[in-house]
């Protein structure tokens, strides 16, 4: 049974909306591409084991009634046999968001390294219509965004990617559902200590780049799992190339539209 409190707390571009529980179930049962997920996680396999996590309804407030008490919490999935088992647990929770932990662990739980990533979200930009993040927070719309902000964060991502190319050789861009992530998958970077990550993040922000320093430094380890569903906007989390980035329109691009929006 669906347990819902409130509807669309945040303004979203036309065409984006919350996914219902039945739509989430349809997506993870029929569309969630485990082979693509496996390929994404391949760089981690030579280092150690990955943990996953889900949030059922913190922002959408749509969740299974039996999990009402845990709807806003982060549930870690670290005990699993394979990705099919992970999908089975996702189908049990029907979450609004699925993540993986950028830490890589050995079997006994020791941290063997961490992936370096950069998070760029549209609400952190100053919109000519909706104002600054502070303005949006005052209206309790901190996670809301519009098409103008989407285009702005797209350009910011392209600029950051160009800057990072001078330092890293294995870069990947992911449309996160709202903004973009850039992942640095160079093997040596997995060995960076938190102090070095934090210093690099600080350097980039001083250069004027828009990133979430908490993510890059490793303070926030969770990041959206590519090929999962961002149920707040009903879009697939999709890896794209730098050539595809400029001009990318997640509102209409067929590649990030789940089947329940096409029928």
Description:
- The protein is an alpha+beta fold.
- The chain has a single domain (2-262), classed as DNA primase, PRIM domain, CATH 3.90.920.
- It has 9 helices and 14 strands.
- It has helices at 21-31, 34-45, 83-93, 133-138, 147-164, 194-206, 213-217, 242-245, 259-262, and strands at 2-4, 52-55, 62-64, 74-77, 97-101, 103-105, 111-114, 116-120, 171-175, 180-184, 222-224, 229-230, 235-236, 238-240.
- The chain has a 4-stranded antiparallel beta sheet with strand order 4-2-5-11, with helices on one face. Strands 8-10-9-14 form a 4-stranded antiparallel beta sheet. Strands 1-3 form a two-stranded antiparallel sheet.
- A hairpin with a 5-residue loop joins strand 6 and strand 7 (111-114).
- The longest helix is centred in the middle third of the chain and has 18 residues, at 147-164.
- Mean pLDDT is 92; it is low at 1-6.
Number of strands: 14
- Structural domain count: 1
Cα-based radius of gyration, to the nearest Å: 18 Å
Name given to the CATH architecture = Alpha-Beta Complex
Mean pLDDT: 92
Cα shape? globular
Query: What is the beta-strand fraction?
Result: 15-25%
The quaternary state of the protein chains shown equals single chain
CATH topology: DNA primase, PRIM domain
Count of runs of 4 or more consecutive helical residues: 9
Largest sheet, spatial ordering of strands:
4-2-5-11
In angstroms, what separates the terminal alpha carbons?
A: 23 Å
Instruction: Output the CATH homologous superfamily.
Output: DNA primase, PRIM domain
- Identify low-pLDDT runs: 1-6
Q: Can you summarize the main beta sheet? A: 4 strands, antiparallel
Structural class: alpha+beta
* Helix-residue proportion: 25-40%
Name of the CATH first level:
Alpha Beta
Order of helices and strands: EHHEEEHEEEEHHEEHHEEEEHH
